[in-house]
Sequence to fold (120 residues):
Amino acid sequence: NCLGRCYGNGQGVDQSIAEARRLYELAVARGETQVAPAHLQDLNNAIRQTCPLFDRRVVLRGLNTAALNGTRGTAVDFGFNEMDPKTDKWLIDSGRYTVRLDGPEGRLVKVRASNVDKAD
Fold:
C-alpha cells in the first residue's frame, strides 16, 4: 500500500499510474481494508481527471517522428516527469502516456498527453 503511494506520487521512483493501481488492487485482494480501498478510489478519480485515456485505445498525432503519426495502440501507463520547484506540484505539460503500439513487437513509446487522442 505504501509502495503504491510511492508509485502514484513519484516519490523515490518514476511515477507510474499503472504500477500504483496494480499495487493497490493487490493490497485490496489480499484483504487490506483500512486504507488501500480509499487509495485505489482516489487513484481512479485522479485517472479520470488527469489521464482519461489511460488503459484505452489511442492514436498518436502531431509527433515530430512522422512515421508514428496515425499509429494506434493502448495507453498502458501515465506519469509526470517534472515538478514546479515553487509549488512542488507536477507540471501538467510534463505528463506522458506510455503507449503499447499495435503490432507483433508491441513496442512501447512515451508521448506527451497532447499527442494522444482517443481511437475511433
